[in-house]
Specification:
207 residues, alpha/beta, Rossmann fold, thrh gene product, domain 2, 9 helices, 43% helix, globular
Length: 207
């Protein structure tokens, strides 16, 4: 049996931190996992900037609520879900993702959690499990699933490597150059074709 695992930001929704950067005018917040492969270092950097600028959870939530899924994302996701079990594996946080999940039809999401104090300040973050995307894929394979995974950033590459087939979706050039073993799709039509081709190669039927 086949399961599909997708990253969230950059695959189904725009990058949340980039939108926060644009709304606040703080360009330093545009740094994402496309640029920094060390997630703990990236989050420490982000929370330091939020504290320096007195940005609270409510400020970020208002930005997220104004965002929409990427054009075509809902139809793409619905097509996958109609054929195969589909999981979204993300290094975002449940508090960030909740408004966007409604707009995507409430798909299954596995992600992390923020620690927020009574003033709305983001104090810390709680990682569900180190490298949880890779671990989830490996667990599915242990359960006799074959897994096709798609993502766009450094922090997706261990998931893609662990999967039966991995696909990069709209990745930056540096990721393409460093991970040439993964096919690249630049729109949902190409990503659908790549998933269907991989499913065929794995001997999985699709309609």
């Amino acid at each position: 049996m086949l399961a599909i695992c997708l990253d969230l930001e950059g695959v189904l929704i725009p990058e949340i931190w980039i939108n926060v950067a644009e709304r606040t005018g703080i360009s330093a917040l545009t740094r994402t996992t496309r640029d920094e492969p060390d997630y703990d270092r990236l989050m420490s950097y982000r929370l330091g900037i939020l504290d320096q600028n007195d940005i609270k959870m409510g400020d970020i939530t208002s930005t997220i609520e104004s965002m929409d899924p990427m054009e075509g994302a809902m139809e793409f996701l619905a097509s996958l879900e109609s054929r195969w079990p589909t999981l979204i594996l993300s290094d975002t946080f449940s508090q960030f993702a909740k408004p966007m999940m409604k707009k995507l039809g409430n798909p299954t999401l596995l992600c992390h959690t923020l620690v927020i104090d009574e003033t709305g300040r983001i104090e810390d973050w709680e990682i569900r499990y180190d490298d949880h995307k890779r671990k989830t894929v490996e667990s599915l394979i242990e359960m006799n699933y074959q897994v096709i995974a798609a993502g766009d950033s450094y922090n997706d590459t261990s998931m893609l490597s662990a999967a039966s087939a991995g696909i990069l979706f709209r990745p930056p050039e540096n990721v393409i150059q460093e991970f040439p073993q993964f096919p690249v799709a630049m729109d949902y039509s190409e990503l659908t074709d790549a998933i269907e081709s991989a499913a065929t190669d794995l001997g999985e039927l699709w309609n």
